[in-house]
Write a structure and sequence with these properties.
The protein is globular and about 95 Å long. It is built from 22 helices and 19 strands. The protein has a five-stranded mixed beta barrel with strand order 1-2-4-6-5. A five-stranded mixed beta sheet has the order 13-12-11-10-19. Strands 14-15-16-17-18 form a five-stranded mixed beta sheet. The longest helix has 28 residues, at 383-410. It is 53% helix and 16% strand. It has five domains: 2-79; 88-200, OB fold (Dihydrolipoamide Acetyltransferase, E2P); 263-353, no CATH class; 484-531; 533-678, no CATH class. It is an alpha+beta fold and 678 residues long.
């Protein structure tokens, strides 16, 4: 690939490496700025030295790449909200204290089983002006609060900083929120909220009002709610109200990407705008006027759709594409992709850790790189076959590019993705165009019933097709064990294969075979490592007790009957099983005594009965045992007391105080997460 020789590509890679380095090393701002200053000095010295020479020396390139690396690292550190002295997180010292908080609603999120959720901006803590995002959880109630984007709320509640996952290999939701600059959460009931008459009328408010006006007018026109929610996701980027079963169908059919506004949708919008503005004279003034309208329209759409990473990425890239098209300049698609990525990361480096951002760029990169290679394998003779072959090659290129990342994050793969894309992509453009027209009319209160019904029935048909494809569960490969090393090795293998297909040579074939060996090493190494592991864990399960003993790829699960019967649906256990390549699970009821790794473990249940002569190393308290813990500790002196998730909080707090008094370590899995027997 000649693109790699483009200087900005290498600079972007170094910039990204700097972001990654700062993300994992977590340096402080002072040291990063010092190193950046030294990198700037080295770069300037190299630059002025090269001015005296005809050819630039390699030291100038090295200095440039080093500077790019530390600019990336500095960008991430500077954008870290922890370094913003006005951020509310610096005013939260005690998690048990209630703070008087002034919030402004910024974004509505998907509702959970228990809470209505919003992203809010903290304007003040205990009367002190602050800034920063917080996740607001409002307990579901029959009295729904009348909240809109821009609503000012006053409440007095505890503020909870994010915790690490309670169980091993769980999805780290706290880290996910931190990457979105949401540093904590607050939980509140409806009656405890004071809603101010003041509403902040900013760009977020007007965008939300526009969306609400469109959706309300379409609802009044009897647009079916289920189909309307899908249209809102396709065009407005609003997925909050889509039912879980619809989302699951789209996931299983390999079409979840069409519910997130991305390059596909923005590309359709750009084509539609070009069609509408085709009558503008193709003069210099006309092209500039047309370009201004298109870019303004694209970014207006991005704001209305919520400025998610995928939308920002897509609109940024297609803005560059539009500039190239209308200024009559030939653009390299790879260069456009790289420039848009660099520009986004300069302003929002945390987007690099957004899964949607990663998937979008990888899909686009492989479409640009691999799709032309695949399309050359066959040249159909008629237009229809050519169109279907084009869709098929684009789908395969995107799926191959995102396969390792999807396996790493989601551990599943939809086997019928190519059928899904062949069927739905030709009609998606029609739905997008008609949907846009209907929504523009709906905003002005004009809802042509004929077009509304066309869009409604089109989406109904789309949902039906997706549901039918998703019903072939034997083609949905789920719970695939896959770790980071295997992901990297698979990307190396895919890259080497594509390079070999591009230009078949012995040298490239050797690289392919080496990549195959690398992937085998990563797989066999992972398997060997997991086969040699032995551990016993007390997992956290709310109101329940679960112990697991792992020996290699075999797992024993100790729990009560109700848990054991539904073990396959236990999310905590499923993530542990997949991550550790478990291939055999044995179920057993919890007993009172265990022996593991030369440690004796005694489980104290609600009966509070125990042998007087037992001297366990570890004691696990469960089911809110009525034991006199102080006397037990004095008589038996265990090494540690562990309280699992089946105990009442008041009991746990009392036991913790008793252990502190007796100077014996105490581990509550509801506070510290799972306990591993060492």
């Amino acid at each position: 690939m000649k693109t790699i020789h483009f200087p900005l590509v290498r600079i972007t890679f170094c910039f990204i490496a700097g972001i990654l380095g700062a993300y994992y090393a977590k340096p402080d701002l002072y040291h990063v700025l010092i190193i950046l200053f030294l990198a700037v000095v080295a770069f300037l010295a190299s630059y002025f030295f090269c001015l005296k020479k005809i050819q630039q020396g390699i030291h100038f390139a090295i200095a440039t790449y080093i500077l790019s690396f530390f600019v990336g690292a500095t960008t991430l550190v500077v954008h870290n909200d922890y370094f913003d002295q006005d951020n509310y997180i610096h005013f939260i010292e005690d998690s048990d204290k209630e703070y008087s908080v002034h919030l402004v609603i910024r974004e509505k999120l998907k509702t959970t089983a228990y809470n209505e959720r919003y992203v809010a901006i903290v304007h003040a803590i205990d009367g002190v002006k602050t800034d920063g995002k917080i996740l607001l959880n409002i307990k579901k109630d029959s009295l729904k609060p009348d909240l809109t984007i821009g609503s000012n709320l006053l409440l007095s509640e505890k503020i909870y900083k994010h915790k690490s996952p309670y169980n091993p290999d769980q999805f780290d939701y706290g880290k996910y929120l931190e990457n979105k600059s949401i540093l904590s959460q607050v939980y509140v009931e409806v009656q405890d909220i004071k809603v101010s008459d003041k509403v902040d009328k900013n760009i977020w408010y007007f965008a939300a009002q526009l969306r609400n006006t469109i959706i309300q007018n379409l609802e009044r026109s009897n647009f079916n709610k289920r189909e309307l929610n899908v249209v809102a996701a396709l065009i407005l980027g609003q997925q909050q109200d889509i039912s879980p079963d619809v989302i699951q169908d789209y996931q299983f059919a390999g079409a979840i990407h069409i519910l997130s506004v991305s390059g596909l949708h923005v590309g359709y919008i750009l084509l539609f705008l070009n069609f509408l503005l085709a009558k503008i004279p193709k003069t210099r003034t006309g092209n500039i006027f047309k370009l201004i309208i298109i870019i303004a329209s694209l970014w207006s759409f991005a704001v209305i759709a919520g400025l998610s990473p995928s939308i920002v990425r897509s609109v940024t890239m297609f803005s560059f594409v539009a500039i190239g098209m209308h200024l009559k300049r030939k653009t390299n698609s790879f260069h456009t992709l790289i420039v848009s990525m660099l520009l986004i990361l300069v302003f929002q480096p945390s987007f690099l850790f957004d899964v949607g951002f990663q998937l979008s760029y990888l899909a686009l990169f492989f479409i640009l790189w691999l799709q032309p290679i695949l399309s050359n394998f066959w040249t159909p003779k008629n237009y229809i076959l050519t169109s279907f072959w084009g869709i098929l090659t684009v789908s395969f290129a995107a799926q191959i590019g995102t396969l390792p990342l999807s396996l790493y994050y989601f551990h599943q793969f939809p086997g019928l993705f190519f059928i899904t894309n062949i069927i739905i992509l030709p009609f998606l453009g029609l739905i997008m165009v008609l949907g846009l027209l209907v929504m523009i009319w709906a905003y002005f209160g004009i809802v042509p019933l004929f077009f509304v019904k066309i869009v409604e029935y089109s989406v109904l048909g789309l949902n039906w097709i997706i549901s039918k494809i998703a019903s072939f569960e034997s083609f949905i490969f789920k719970d695939i064990p896959f770790n980071l090393y295997m992901e990297i090795a698979l990307y190396v293998l895919i890259a080497m294969l594509v390079l070999w297909i591009e230009k078949r040579s012995l040298k490239r074939l050797v690289f392919v075979l080496s990549a195959v060996i690398l992937f085998q090493i990563s797989f066999l190494g992972t398997k060997y490592y997991n086969q040699t592991q032995k551990e016993m864990l007390v997992l956290h399960s709310r109101k329940n007790s679960i112990f697991v003993e792992r020996k290699g790829q075999e797992l024993k699960v100790f729990a009560n009957d109700s848990i054991l019967k539904n073990l396959e649906n236990d999310r905590n256990l499923k993530s542990f099983v997949v991550a550790n390549f478990i291939n055999h699970i044995q179920k057993e009821k919890i007993s009172n005594f265990y022996f593991f790794n030369n440690k004796s473990i005694f489980v104290m249940d609600s009966s509070a009965v125990y042998p007087k002569e037992c001297k366990p190393n570890i004691v696990v308290l469960m089911q809110s045992s009525q034991i006199n813990l102080e006397r037990f500790l004095q008589d038996h002196k265990p090494e540690i007391i562990v309280a699992d998730g089946s105990n009442y909080r008041t009991y746990v707090e009392r036991w913790k105080a008793t252990c502190e008094k007796q100077k014996i370590p105490f581990h509550a899995v509801g506070e510290k997460g799972f306990y591993k027997v060492e």
